User: Fold O-antigen ligase domain-containing protein from Phycicoccus avicenniae.
Amino acid sequence: MGVRSVALPPWWPLAAVVYGYPLWWLLGVAAVVPLLAALVMLRQLWRTSPVVLPRGATWWLLFLVWVVIGVATLWVDAPDAVPGGGPSRIVPFAYRLAWYATCTVVLLWIANSSRLRVPTRKVVDILAWMFVIAAFGGLAGVLLPTLELRSVLELLLPGGVRGNAFVQSLVHPGLADVQTVLGRPEARPKAPFPYANTWGSVLALSLPFFVVAWVKDAGTGRRWAAVAVLVVAAVPTVYSLNRGLWACLVLGLVFLGVLQAWRGRPAQLVATVVVVAGAVLALALSPLGSIVSERFDNQHSNERRSELLVTTVNSAAEGSPVVGFGSTRDVQGSFASIAGGGTPSCPACEVPPLGTQGHLWFVVFAQGLVGALFFVTYFTGALLASLRCRTITEVLATVVLLFFGLQLFVYDTLGIPLLLVMVAIGLAWRDQSRQADSEVVLFRVTTVTSLLARVAGHRRWWVAAPALALAAGLVLAALQPPRHESQQAILLKEAPSYLPAADGGVESPRETTVDTEAALVMAERTMRGAVAGTGVAPADLRQRVRVTAVPSTRVIVLQVTAGDPQVADDEVVALAGAYLAARQDYLAQRRDQYLARLRDRQTELVTVGGPDGRFLSTDQREELAVLGEAVTDIVLTPTSAGEQLRLREAVEQSPPYDLYGASGLGIGILVAAVATALGRRRSARTSSTATGRGRVVRAVQRLTAAGRSRGRAQPKTARTTRSPA
Assistant:
């Protein structure tokens, strides 16, 4: 008796990703399964002929080209970032590239699938379950925030791989991130996703699918179940302290009200306002309301986000505006100190890498300003195409894209969030391009075959422009004047000081910060001392000096670049000497000032208490003793500025072949793309003109033929007329 094969429905890859997501998360393969499902979708697409590209997809394809080009700039030093970097950067780059490819395949798979074989309702229902999974996963994170699991894949990985922070975030299942956002430990739910912000992003982006599948197109029983799920989701939504998620919910309610008013449905609008008002009142009266209020009272992350944003954009614009840096970079120090960084006692002191805290900022940093233009143009076009909201899929796509546009500024949305967005875009375009009751395409579309044919038709441009631009970039890099960098490490001596407090007491020792030292290095006095007798202007030297620090130490590193290696060595040594001399004078001056303050306080107490101190209180006597000890300590403490640890002799910097070459290649590809687009328009105009001329010629031919017919018929009429005569 033979084994009977079971035919799987065409939509099974998407269902396998969503329905099995909790299992994949527990196994540690949740980040890999969608990539494997995309391979199945790609195989199904391979059988489709021709493969149609949704409107505006060429912008997305150009963005993908920019992502690939970024591999050449992975090891380029970015301004304000930690210099250097190892081969480990290729792993997150490959992971992100795989996810971009996966989302592209999902978009094409939806856009090219038949609505009979892959029904819209089924796709929406599948993705609605992602909201249910996120809601209950978030509730588990609230109830069991400290529960840590070990996935199967985590147990199988070697210790070295498992210990990598990036790999750990993907394979280690955790229910919540415990953070001190409100000044006390608070659990921010994240299950079944790697980060709390990813959880919030998925919950918001899957909500429109849930509303359509479980409320709009559902029976009474499922609608009651939807109410229960929404109540469950409300708890982790509040406890997540996720302002981006809250903003999405407010934006969704505003959009719903505007849509109902636009369509002339006042009854539905009033009902929506009443329900929302009741929900807000219930939230305000519940214990959850105080959490929301506290979150808005503790917005300390705003300043850090804005500083990171400015640094990210400036670094990309200054260092690699065309193609970016391919991936993220660690910030040099922190925004509070160039020697800042995370420590066991202060993990929050560590600044997120450049290119994080928002997908848009990642694209700006990793793909440059040009790549960001392609990215934003594609999604803006998709939003405008659906904004009329004529069908449920257009409404769905509009809401999802509005949420996505808001999240781009605060969330890293690569992964499941971007996949949800691509599905919404694909569903809307599929309905827009086909008749309501059939699969007949309504307008001319671009296929992969026609796009490749168009590129082949302009192959001279696609070969010559990138090749010439790449060569020009490499030549320009080779023509850059040679640069040599010399480094001098300096160990700063501690310089404690005791200051009288406002109440007469004595403060604890305070130390100058490393940033104070960096400012002293760049001071005019130091620069003048370094260039004395060389003829070099202080401003010129200052432009070639960089001050860095070893995190969480008192070691600063002076870096000087110059065209000549000996000049670089001499200048960094002179700069170090001038800096230490200036610091020596500064410490001595500050010591004298502090001693004067302490002695003034001593004199004041002695005057009040008399020669033998009989009129002093117990506290004043203790203070007088402490002041005496402080004066003795400061007098006996040497004002040593520091010591030079080592000199790294000048090393020639390699010409920036990678940066200039990648930028040139990108510019060449852009030129070829523009030439192809202009050629297409020219061909379209020529074709239109030829069509018009053809119509005129055919009209003239018809008129001529008609005239000849009348000419042949006229003599017969004349003969007939003359015959009776």
